Every structure is written in C-alpha cells, then in structure tokens.
Amino acid sequence: MLEDKIILGFETSCDETAIAIMRNDELLVNKISSQIDLHEKFGGVVPEVASRAHAEMIRNLLHSALNEGGVELSEVDVVASTDGPGLAGSLVVGYNFAKSIAWSLEKPFLGVDHMVGHLSAPLIENPSLKPPFLSLLVSGGHTQIVLVEEWGKYNLIGTTIDDAAGEAFDKLSRYCGFGFPGGPAIQKIGDGGDETKIDFPRPKTSNKFDYSFSGLKTAAIYYLQGLPDDQPISKKDFAASYQEAIVDSLMSIFEKAVKETNVSTISGGGGVMANSRLREKLMIFAENENKDLLLPSPKLSTDNAAMICIAAKNNLITNDLGLEDIRLSSIIS
Ligand code: KG4
Ligand code: ZN
Fold this sequence. Notes:
Order of helices and strands: EEEHHEHEHHEEEHHHHEHEHHE
Largest sheet: 6 strands, mixed
Strand order of the largest sheet: 3-2-1-4-5-11
Helix content: 40-55%
Oligomer: single chain
Number of helices: 12
Bound molecules: 5'-O-[(R)-(carboxyoxy)(hydroxy)phosphoryl]adenosine, zinc ion
C-alpha cells in the first residue's frame, strides 16, 4: 500500500468530470462536474457531447480541486486515472490529461480499471474492509458479482448476459419520459408506490450467478402497450413495481453467491448502489445472515475520482514506483 503520498486522481469514463486528491488516508477533495444538464434533453449520454464537455471542464476543475485542497501541483506524488472501461472519447480526455501532468511533474502514472475503482470505493469510509469478500457491482454498463480473494485478485463469478441493471433503469425511463438518469428518476417516482402492484418477471439464466435484464424492460413496455385506455396504471405503482423487480433479481442471485462462497463480508458499488431499496434489502439480508456489510455512501457509489485515488493507493504494494506507466489489475473471469 502506498504510504505518505499525495495522489491526484481523475475519472472521465462517462458523463462526470471528476478529480480527487488524497493525502494518506485523508480525502482532501472530491470534485464532480456533472453533465446531466447537457444530456438530459437527449434522454441519454451523447458520447461526442460528453468528450467535448470533459475537455472544456477539466483544466478549471483541476485548478479548483488544488485550491480547495490547499495543495500545490508540485506536491503531487502520484497521478492516477481511469483507463477503461467506458466511452472511448471521454476516457481519453481524462487519461491523457492525467498522463501529461505525470509526465510534466516527472511522477509515476497509474491506470485504474473503472470497476476496480467502484470495488475499492467502500475503503474511503470503511478502511477496515478486507478480503476475502464478495462485491455486487452495479453501474450503468456492468452488473457483476466479484469474489475478492485478495487485493489485486478479482474473480468475476457472475455477470449480465445482456443489459446491466443500470441500463434497465435508464432505458425504461427514457421510453416513459421519466427523466435522466433513469435510476434516480424511477426511484423518486416510485417512492411510496405499491411495489407489489405489477408482478414483473425475475429472469433466470443458465449460469447460476449470471443476470439478465433485457426481458424485464421489454415486459414493462408490453405491459404499458397492453393497458386498456380506460384503466391507466398509477405511475407511482408502475415505477415501484419495476424497481422492485430489478432489486429482487439483483438480491436473489447475489444472496445465492454469498451463501455458496460462504464469505463473511459483503460489499458493493456502482451507481445503482445509490438506490435506497437495494441498500435496504442488502442491510436486511446482512443482518439476517450475520454478515458484515460495507457499502460506499450513495455519493461515493456513483462515479467519482476518490475511488480512483483509493484504488491506486490500496492496490500498490510498494512505495517504490518508477516512471514507467503502471496498470493496476482488472477484474478477470
Ligand atoms: O457507476 P455509475 O455512476 O456510472 C457508470 O459507470 O455507468 O452508474 C450509473 C448508473 C445509471 O444507470 C443510473 O441510472 C444508476 O447508476 N443510478 C441509480 C441510482 N443512482 C444512479 N439507479 C437506481 N437508483 C439510484 N438511486
Ligand atoms: Zn461507474
């Protein structure tokens, strides 16, 4: 683990320009400039718009991060950036900017896998998180169950065979005009609704730990199309039932994986982990099964650069870094 270093981290894999600074265990700054306003009218992220906005924003954001953290650029010891997966045009802005800074400062540069960032995020608030543990990673593009045997050894035991859970939220929200991004919009609309009103399918896959979400979205669209004109469904109940189907699917397979791997600690991350119904169900499960549950707070579940700093800090076992680019291990199947 890196000790006594100031780490400057960048994350631009999608539609958030994010910069964070950590000194030892202390998160000094966690800046996020969201592009929601730019993409909202399209109902989804437009890659070309996203990469341009990153390029326009990143220099000013770095200035304000350094000011807020009371850190001079010359004091930075290590620069880290997300190096994938994500939108290529977006990634390349943060990655090249970060690498140029490392080059100009003659400091080491670390490339960090975005999902390893999400997986490491709980450490910011819970430094006690230690392998072995099982993590449920639920972002806009990924739904993964990862067995962390040790830091740097990430075993993918389950994934989605089609859409991610985040996509199931986003695509239905776009279809219904509920808002962007879809997850928080559906959660808000469904708040207080009857989640048992519509019994949406909970799909099964041939691999016991894999997910499938594309059928759920289609079932919801067919449901709406089949509604008689004189019997409209309440928006609240519809959103609550749809959210419940996603959360139930996520939970039932994750629960099976926890029981079979017999881990005593469970964790998670990614934007969908900001969902309050999912967090509630995980808490109940952990309590009933006597497991330690260590989740990042909702703000650190969605994309941020603090997770890139902590992944860089935590996954390096030596302080003795050269000037060759280093790529941290990613998640393997
Ligand atoms: O990790 P993330 O911020 O970005 C990616 O790496 O994709 O995840 C974004 C996803 C989107 O699908 C968004 O709708 C979903 O996370 N999300 C939520 C909530 N907040 C964000 N889904 C459900 N409930 C939420 N409160
Ligand atoms: Zn993410």
